[in-house]
Amino acid sequence: MDPVPGPGVSMGGPLSGRRGPVASAPMSSSTSLPPGFPAGVDPERVPRHIAAVMDGNGRWAKQQGRKRTEGHAAGEEALFDAVEGCLDLGVEWFTVYAFSTENWRRPADEVRYLMHFNESLLLRRRDELNDRNVRILFAGRRDWRVPRRILKRMDESMALTEDNDGLTLTIAFNYGGRAEIVDAVQAIVESGVPAGKVDEAMISAHLYNPDTPDPDLMIRTSGEHRISNYLLWQLAYAELTFPDVLWPDFGVDHFDAALSDFAGRQRRFGAAPMEVVPQ
Fold first, then answer.
1. Beta-strand relationship, 217-220 and 49-53
2. H-helix or E-strand containing 182?
């Protein structure tokens, strides 16, 4: 998993440089899209919550003959194009895999760069996000490995945007799906709950952000077909899509194509085809 990209990309507008006016489908008696809604995306089947594994920054940099850190930098535009896409299409929750519990194994200079990036990103972008009515949340362990100044920026960003009721952008930082489940179970045990009282609802209530709905769609770029310890509990019934494009090249068309693909899926939630659970 390649973490969130770093700074250094110039932007052409609020949050995003590539999503301009959206082309909508021709109107017909059977098709009526909201103004500016992209062709091929069903406005009645837009996922409420999208999760993303932003993979391929390092490989992109290698293809370009650049340093790995430049790959992270190049991915910033793709990140905020996706945020802009969520805002345009009415997605309520967007969760991105920024830095995993396994990413501490990366080379020390890359880890330092990514720590600096996360601080820089929040300082540079939180006011823009706040102006767009975006609420910022974080998911992950707040342990000794995370610099205190980063924790401070995280708390400041959440406080700044806590009253916003538009898109919720959750940044999974120092996050691991297994770690989240372990932390939830430990909290339950420490509270003295008898084993027979532990059920799915109780574990869900002890996750990092228990009020967040499970993702409807997970997008992982770079063509890799795995979830890499990401939202293991929450992805139980998510639709998964794996576009064969490196994250820095993930643009508006790829985002819209993922939503179009999602709209064509039949979500059964364990039911037989003729008894599909309503969404």
1. parallel
2. helix 177-190
**Pair 277, 271: CB distance under 8 Å:** yes
Instruction: Please name the helix (run of DSSP H) or strand (run of DSSP E) that holds residue 200, with its range, or none.
Output: helix 200-205
* β partners of residue 95: 51, 170
DSSP lists the bridge partners of residue 175 as 100
Provide the whole-model pTM: 0.86
Of the candidates 74, 212, 87, the one whose C-alpha atom is nearest the C-alpha of residue 138 is: 212
Amino acid making up residue 85: G
List residues with catalytic annotation.
55, 103
DSSP 8-state secondary structure symbol assigned to residue 32: -
Give residue-wise pLDDT tens across range 106-146: 999 889 988 998 889 899 999 999 999 999 999 999 999 99
The size of the chain, in residues, is 279
- Count of CB atoms situated within 10 Å of the CB of 188: 17
Interatomic CA distance for residues 252 and 25, integer angstroms: 16
**Burial of residue 80, with CB atoms counted within 10 A of its CB: 0-12 exposed, 13-18 middle, 19 or more buried:** buried
**Are the C-beta atoms of 22 and 38 separated by less than 8 Å?**
yes
Within 1-93, where are the H helices? Answer: 57-63, 68-74, 76-89
- The label of the residue with tokens 């610099």 reads 147
Which pLDDT band, with edges at 50, 70 and 90, does 274 fall under? low
**Phi, psi of 39, rounded to the nearest 5 degrees:** -60, 145
Order across the sheet with 135-139: list the strands.
135-139, 168-175, 93-100, 49-53, 217-220, 239-241
Q: Is 240 helix (H, G, I), strand (E, B) or coil?
A: strand
Q: Cα separation of 85 and 37, whole Å?
A: 11
Other C-beta atoms within 10 Å of 241: how many? 17
